[in-house]
Design a protein that fits this description.
This protein is 44% helix and 13% strand. About 4% of the residues have low confidence. It binds ligand FNR. Ligand FNR binds next to α2 and α16.
Amino acid sequence: PPLSRILSLADLEAVAKATIPHKAWSYYSSASDDEISFRENERAFSRFFFRARVLRAVSWCDPSTTILGYKSSLPVFVSGAALAKLAHPLGELNITRASGAASIIQMVSSNSSFSAPEIAAAALPSQVLFFQLYKHRNDAIAAQRVRDIENLGYKAIFLTVDAVVPSNRERDIRSPWELEDIETGVPPVYEEGPEAQDGSGLGTAGALIMNDDRDMTWEKTIPWLRSVTRLPIVLKGVQCVEDALLAAQAGVDGILLSNHGGRQLEYALPPMEVLYRLRKDHPEVFSKLEVYLDGGVRRGTDIIKALCLGAKAVGLGRPFLYAQGAYGEAGVTKLIRILEREMTTGMRLLGASTTHDLTPDLVERVDWQPQ
Ligand code: FNR
């Protein structure tokens, strides 16, 4: 269908499912084991209802914010997700160009199909990019990578901490690689070296994180990363309140509450539930670092709910892959427009004109699951 007929993120996903290669769909849409965390990520948002305030002037409405001090037209960023080229020849560059034009921030995956320099080169001069780091087990190699990223002008390091070993993603493992997928989509790490060969039975993700550090610790890894870069550090994949507190103690600049879109530990709590508990029991944490969330964000109201509970911004993974796979750069532009429209409509009906108006008293958690 023409883009003008696309109304929602679900519409974009449906077009992607029908049009992108089967392997791309299997890799993007799959999650761990029985995909419970994946489904619950999205369902968790539906247990939060609004207490809308009326008779507030809302003709002026500004959904913009800052993320680590950088302006963002929406409280939304691209969560780094690997191998965008599996679904479209321009892959991540579709996302870079559309997000640059719309002034939102892209977090570039360590396992992008285009290299970090290629993606930086496709960005506008003033465009802000963040980098998602899978830490190599060799500190010297990892440090060099971080320095290269800093020199390329990336503005923050999101260290992924929830993927120390590959998980079991059966729909991905079952789906065979087609020759053209291998030619177009797979980064060299997948094909190089005997270790990568060993990883082939683990599914796509298993092969991609073969050389990663499985022994990262609070004591060792955070000070190490601080010693190699001046960039802000965000921990991607914090999954409980206790670790959010440790992150604040460790002095990182932010945490991304995430269970990797349900793709790592099956039965990891939905990030929206973790955010709710953190806000309820430890509101002081939100003034020590920026808190973000990703996983299951599909509507403007999801974004608003997360902001009400203290998130500074939210990330989306799959929706960007689907949008670029289905319609290239124009699909990503459409996705951002849809989120903007849904967000400003939601904010106005809630009685909020800026993100500062989004406060905990505007949402209520119910203990029943809507159908
Ligand atoms: C991911 N994600 C991910 N995370 C990461 O730190 N490094 C990576 O390379 C990838 N790769 C990746 C590939 C694909 C296909 C998906 C779907 C996800 C996780 C991603 O950053 C994010 O946490 C989730 O995608 C958020 O959930 P939603 O928005 O997809 O529901």
